[in-house]
Automatic annotation (TrEMBL):
Natural source organism: Rynchops niger
Name of the protein in question: ubiquitinyl hydrolase 1
Annotated keywords: Hydrolase
EC number annotated for this UniProt entry: 3.4.19.12
SUPFAM superfamilies: Cysteine proteinases (SSF54001)
Higher taxonomy: Eukaryota, Metazoa, Chordata, Craniata, Vertebrata
Gene from which the chain derives: Usp39_1
Length: 212
């Protein structure tokens, strides 16, 4: 992928000083190309609303909304101890298999927080062509991915548990695994879970074979 980074002046500086700093080469956007092992998808901050019966309402977000991070145009601010940066990302090459890591956990000095937002995702036909730079789109005949495995985290960050949904390619059936328990599961139920890590492969419609 291409990673574009632009340093930001300190927000407390006077406007004139900020304008002067933005003219310096140190504050101009820079681009590097980097390989990736997986794509980290950032969840929006999750306000936990309550309905009339004081029941918590868990927010939801479409997969394509959080994938927009990699469209080459979406900017996000990253903060370090001393400095702030704007970054944007653009994919330049797609592998046969993709791993999505949905960033549910954030750490501070005292504890780990978990974002319970449900990600609405299709099981099949997730097309990433629009996230590729225009000059490399023609080189990719395969850009559509189907889900192969879905890892779910249930419960609190410190005492939760994991489940995994796996596609049996020979039969096209989905199974849920937790410890030594294996049960059938409907694809519609998979999309209701707090997905944490997903593995996707080129879809059959593109000539690929998810799961090998």
């Amino acid at each position: 992928m291409r990673i574009f980074t632009k340093k930001l002046p300190h927000p407390d500086l006077p406007a004139e000083e900020k304008a002067q700093l933005l003219q310096n080469s140190e504050y101009q956007e820079m681009m590097v190309e980097s390989t990736f092992m997986y794509l980290t998808l950032d969840l929006p901050t999750a306000p936990l609303y309550k309905d009339e019966k004081e029941q918590l309402i868990i927010p939801q977000v479409p997969l394509f909304s959080i994938l927009a991070k990699f469209n080459g145009a979406t900017e996000k601010e990253y903060k370090t101890y001393k400095e702030n940066f704007l970054k944007r990302f653009q994919l330049t090459k797609l592998p046969p298999y993709l791993i999505f890591c949905i960033k549910r956990f954030t750490k501070n000095n005292f504890f780990v927080e978990k974002n319970p937002t449900i990600v609405n995702f299709p099981i099949t036909n997730v097309d990433l062509r629009e996230y590729l730079s225009e000059e490399v789109q023609a080189a990719h005949t395969n850009t559509t991915y189907d889900l192969i495995a879905n890892i779910v985290h249930d419960g609190k960050p410190s005492e939760g548990s994991y489940r995994i949904h796996v596609l049996h390619h020979g039969t096209g059936k989905w199974y849920e695994l937790q410890d030594l328990q294996v049960t059938d599961i409907l694809p519609q139920m998979i999309t209701l879970s707090e997905a944490y890590i997903q593995v996707r492969g080129f879809g059959d419609s593109e000539g690929g074979t998810p799961g090998g």
